[in-house]
Amino acid sequence: MTKLPVTVLIPTLNAEAHLPELLDSIAWAEDIFLVDSRSLDRTVDIALERGVKIVQRPFTAFGDTIQWMLDVLPVKTPWLFIMAQDERSSASLETELAKLFRGEPDCDGYTVLWRLWFMGQPLHAVTKNLRLFRKGKAEVSPVLVNEHFIVRGKTGRLPGILEHKDSLNLYDWYEKQNLYTTWEAAERIQGKGREEEPRLFGNRLQRKMFFKRFFIRLPGGHLIQFLYYLLKYGAWRDGSTGLAWVRLRLWVHEVGTLKEREMRRTGVIPKLPSARHGDFDPRIMESELQKQLLPELCETWKKR
Asked: Distance of CA 237 to CAs 122, 127, 159, 234, Å?
């Protein structure tokens, strides 16, 4: 397979169930880096077996982790592609990337079509997501979760699909949403993680923030949001699974709003929960790449 001049960067934590399929889907990448947040499962084993470059670093926030990847990893290709561990590159995305790099790209960043899977089924819920950009041209929002990228330069669109296989099952989905809504509520109260002001008639990000923060609280907001997901995202075409997704999306927004309200009323922001993780892997901590990129962490680990 012809390799494309792209390095894929992937933050991971307990990605054993996702990693083989994910790595198979990005065989077109010239290079791949994983930054692992001390997985408990075979994530490190799989990466080493596949010859993927991997370092370990304690998780702080999604925004901080990805910005560290952009700033520190020794990327040699002119282009970067950011992926989550529960995402997959599709055949259509590989085709569009190959077409793009047959010539000289005229933009500094590109959005792709991001298709959501729910309960093991691909939905008609497809949005645009900025994931491909020139090295040194992008930065990420400093948020705990639901980060977005800012490209310094012109952006374009690729019609290829990035599959988002969100959660292995509903138990994992609920656990993740409980974690994420707590993080988001705490960030809103502390005024962190927002470079854009929520605006109904602003850019796409500003409109999204307005919708999430204010519109849902208006009389009839939940009904309008229900119809928005059902019709705009085409969830009605996905039958009972689509209807379940819409209902649970509204539940997520409601839970986040209630958590924020509770924190404001009590004046107490709870200690932020963290995902389950293990210890550092000696094979990684003793690797040359780890020592090169995180020497102080390696020294601290040795002295424990």
From this structure: 11, 16, 21, 6
